[in-house]
Structure formats: structure tokens, C-alpha cells
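pinned: reference chain
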Amino acid sequence: MNIIVYFGKNLYMKRLFLMRNPELFQGEKYLSANKNYFEGWYFKNTNNENGISFIPGINIEGKDKKAFIQVITNETLYFVNYNINDFKFEINPFKIQIANNVFSKKGLYIDIKDESQKLKIQGEIKYSNSENINTNCFYPNIMGPFSYIPFMECNHSILSMKNRINGSININNNIINFNNDTGYIEKDWGCSFPKSYIWCQGNNFQKSNASFMLSIADIPFKLINFRGVICVIIINNQEFKFATYNNAKIIKYDITNNFLNITLKKGPYTLDLQSKYDAGMKLFAPVEGKMEKDIFESITSLINVTLKKDNTVIFSDMSKNCGLEIVQ
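pinned: its C-alpha cells
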């Protein structure tokens, strides 16, 4: 059942429903229109040594409509194109499918064969014990009240800060096994990625079960641009959020020689992030719906995160196997 049939002509109820359920496919109206659009989900899976991320999505540039799956490993990246008719979606429960590949919040099933790249990927991963951010009617996802603005260039949502993963993926006869390991799920949709941004995510901390995500981006907003931040860290089920919309401030923003140093402040809380950027794999990101922007993502970076209340350190730990993108 698609969303149009589900809500009929009640566009307001449909928009509200999608806003409160950002994991669902948001762009159904673009499938029959010739407007530029993209939508992509990000499923990251890591164990102690290896990681693999899958990015299924669609991109629309006028009449040119395609589906795709990007695959990121520690060593390489694959981009596999599909016909837009290979893309299917369901709303109850949430599921997307591209050819034989199925993705949901309960797990994923992969069956990719691409003779041009001599690529064969097969396997299944089950998800459980999902941990997510707090939401309400004012903050339906990590973008807070900006979620209600219809002309944002890029929308972002966290679908699972941390989840348990079990299963295995076979890439050209190399098997990656997951046994009570760690996953993360998010998504983006709109017309273009920001021209410059950083994105960082980690949930493999050494001394704690914390999960962390941060993004700082230059946001076009009608006639002005501003540097916006969204950041959340969950420590022992307690959430700390730093965002432009809750008056968090960027105190330090320094990228020098592949070293990243960020300091955020909100009220009595200060968050410090340090990371050294590993050489990343080249991804393709959308510009006006066309997958033509080269970005580089590492899924093997280390980050150090320190959280203070006034002058008292309440959290300090390092995470490995982190996702990190720096686009300048």
C-alpha cells in the first residue's frame, strides 16, 4: 500500500504522518514528476575489526530517474545503479526494496550482482535493541522545528543511534561476520547535500555504551546562509542534545592537516570532539538530484568525545570504527 492510497487526498495528514515517521519514503510525488530530488538511507554495521555500510536510495534529475545502492567497506566502495522500477517501498511496516535487496529497521537482506564491477555481495543482518533519540511534536526528528520547513535543501533524520546486529555479509567470497555487534541508521532527502559540512558518528566506545552523532553544515535559507549544528550523545540512556534550534553555540571549528577539533556549548554543558581523519572511500552525493558530488567517507576513524557540566567532566571516551566525512 503506498502513501497516496493510504491518505487519499488529505495532503496535510500525509505530510504530518511522514514527518513523524521519517524512516518512510518521503518522495512518492517525485516518482511521477520531473523535478530534481534524492532520498537515501544509511545502514552502518561494524564489529571490532571490520565495517560495512549500505546506502540504498533514488536520485531524480528531471526525467532521468534511477535507484542505486552504494556499499562502503574498510577498503573500498561500490556504486551499483538500478532501474527506478526496481525501487519499491512499504509503509506498514517500513521497508524499502531495490531489486532483490531489502532494507528495514529490523535488518537487511543483500543480493547484489554486478558483472561490470565483478561484484557479488550476499548476506543477511538482523537488527534488534534499537536506541533512538527523544522526539515529540515540536522535535519530530533531529532537525527539530526545521522539520516543518518545506523548502530545506537537505533533510536529515536519525533512525537508530545504536542497534544490535547479527548475521554475515559475503563480498566476493570474503565474509564479514557480526555477532552481537553494533549498527547505526540514518537518512537524507531533498535536492542537494550541503556545499560544505562535517559529519561524524560513533557508537563503539571503549569504556561505555554511549552513542554519538554530530553534523555541522552551511545551510542555505532563502536569502541567507548560516552554519547549523545538530549533535546528540546518549550516555546510559541519558540524552544530551546540541543544536542550532536549542541555542547551542559552536565555540571552536578547526580542521587542520586532517585533524578535526570541535567545541560546542549549550547552557552549562560543553562538548569537545577531536578526531584524525583517515583516508576515506569516495562516495557520490546529490547536487540538484544528480549524483555528481564527490565526497570521501571513512568508517575506520577514531574520535575522542568529552562532555563537561560547568568544569566537571561527566563523560570522556574514545570510539573506533567511526564514520567521518569532511566536505569543504
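why pinned: The mean pLDDT is 91. The longest helix spans residues 11-20.
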